[in-house]
Amino acid sequence: MFSYNLKYELKLLWRSRWIQLLGVLLLVLIGFAVYNGQVKTDQWENSIQTAQQTLKASDAAMVKVLDSVEQGLEVSLAPWLVPTSPMAVGNVHPRVVAKDAQPLSYIATGQSDLFTPYVSPKATGDDFAIEFTEMTSPVQLLFGNFDLAFVIIYLLPLLIIAFSYHVLSAEKERGSLRILMAQPISIRQWVFQKLTLRFLVLSVLVIVAFVAVALGFGLDVWANAPSFFILIALVLTYMLFWFALVFLVNLWVGQSARNAISLLGLWIFFVLLVPSILNQIGSVLYPMPSRTQMIGQMRSLKAEATEKQDEILDNFLRDHPEYAVNDSTQKRNFYHRYVASQQLIRSELEPVVNRYTEQLQKQQDLLGNFKWLSPAIVVQQALNRLAGNSTADFLNYKFQVMGFSETWRNHLMPLLYNNQDFSQEDVPKLPVFQYQPLSSSATSALLVLLGLVVLLFGLGFGFTKRIWAS
Amino acid sequence: MIITDNLTKKYGGHLALDRLNLQVKEGEIYCLLGANGAGKTTTINLLLGFLEPSSGSAFINQVNVKENAQATKKFLAYIPENLMLYPSLTALENLDYFSGIAGKKLGQDELRNYLSEAGLQEEAFGRRISTYSKGMRQKVGIAIALAKHAKVLLLDEPTSGLDPQASHEFGRLLRQLSNLGVATLMATHDLFRAKEVATKIGIMKNGQLKREFYANEISLAELEETYLGLMQPKAAAL
């Protein structure tokens, strides 16, 4: 039966122009989404590149000034900007701490539209309270990003529904079902085979569209073949989930109009409702602490610290004698006191700041525990991870930023507290940030999706009992 | 061979078929007459396994339909009142598809032969079914039955809506199949065609088989008189 179904299903789809229509539609949708993703990734990379070039120019200028100072020439700069001061280097010439775009960044915007591509933490900055947020267009918030993840998660199921919602009911409504049922075949098997063939047709079209678009935009598919295969595997498994739902609805519901409405209802449930409800539950159970409260707390701590600067500095140097081991001058200025106060404020605010990460982690854990309720969440998370734009990726980046800020400060603090000048020789020794991406894996996502697929097909084969022609 | 043994079907409180006993032997054409709602289509649906009987049994080639509906379908072919095939496929493709899924792999020559045997003009073989008249579609149905080597043919009002010539042609094809040993059960309103093609005729009313006789034992006029007499409502008791 399968070979005959295959042969004639392909003929019927070709003659009804479904294959041609789907092919063009997928090419346009995937093409537009990849183009959008690529534009965003290019902007991201250009932004980092520009910052790196600016830093390079600023370093060259710094070296020039240092050279002039070291030759005993006068420089026309305000004293706090002269790079012989370690804090001038730390604040005026901060390093670029960039989150490099990953090879498949273009597939999912994820958290990248909420964060900046790089930050430049200063030696005296409040990097411990770093949030990375920037304003987002309200229109974009309303509609979301038209990226590949949007096409896969939102639009592809709608195409599957339009393509297959009436596989069985159309036979009934046309009148050919009674002839089919008079053949020695299982109608359930027949529907399963028809949907399997449609799944194969759509899979081929999706893969061809992906490859065509990737080649069209000059993306190096082979260099990132493993990630690309994971992407394809995720998409096909997600499609399989929707075909399994279509299979159940075709067997259980019966009329084309009802099938379509039921499937659209399921689409709303799985793609819109469940993610939104889980998100709301996460926000209610694990609310993020008030940022205004934290800023207020930080200001009062700063004010308190300003009043007791000398005492704080004394305590700080008692705790960290290593910073001033070579200091014979015992000269103390604004920066000595300020940096010591910052250290105190940082340690006092640490529990408040950590609470953000903890609450965010709890929200993520909740989503992780219940993600199987919606394959849309599973695929969105997996695609974000594959693109390197997931919450985990940005948390990883945030920790790396905080780590580098510490390194940057610690590199300059001995010079500051030993009252030593920063010289040309110190320039090549300045720390350089190198982003370390997380390794991505889609195994758990694939397993969850496959589990749901098996469950749905099991329900279709095991529990439906209905005589369709009656 | 078709046998029903006290075959009964109830829909809630409504008795659609009441203890039907009939037998159609190899090579026989049995015509079931009756008004709408008499139970003709219910009988065919029960024989096809589309419905489960409330009680009693139906057998196709000695196989119990309720117990093994799929096995009985290897032996039977079915042509409904309006045979709907795949409109965007040609007659050859439709025949190839339905024979194929029934497990008969046929070559192009065999497919053409069956369509010719069913009385279809050669020029129509490659045309899409959407361009066919009802009579031509019924012939493709016969070709499907021929290709399947069906032992049993179930027909539900197959000649309704056919012009006299097409109807006559259809009757000729049925006799041809009967000569091959096919047991045919045909539900129809057409007394003339029933008299013309049937071996046996049964008249149903309110789910019961009221009369049964051999077609050669009764004239068309007698058949009509008997039928109309049975269909008249009983005089209400005063």
Automatic annotation (TrEMBL), chain A:
GO terms for cellular component: plasma membrane. One of its GO terms (molecular function) is ABC-type transporter activity. InterPro entries: DUF3526. Keywords: Membrane, Transmembrane, Transmembrane helix. It comes from the Bacteria. The chain crosses the membrane at residues 12-35, 148-168, 195-217, 229-253, 260-278, 445-464. This is ABC transporter permease.
Automatic annotation (TrEMBL), chain B:
Keywords: ATP-binding, Nucleotide-binding, Transport. This is ABC transporter ATP-binding protein. The keyword ATP-binding applies. GO terms for molecular function: ATP binding; ATP hydrolysis activity. Residues 2-231 form the ABC transporter domain. InterPro entries: AAA+_ATPase (IPR003593), ABC_transporter-like_ATP-bd (IPR003439), ABC_transporter-like_CS (IPR017871), ABC_Transporter_VariousFunc (IPR051782), P-loop_NTPase (IPR027417). Coiled coil: none annotated. It holds the Pfam family ABC_tran. It comes from Sediminicola luteus.
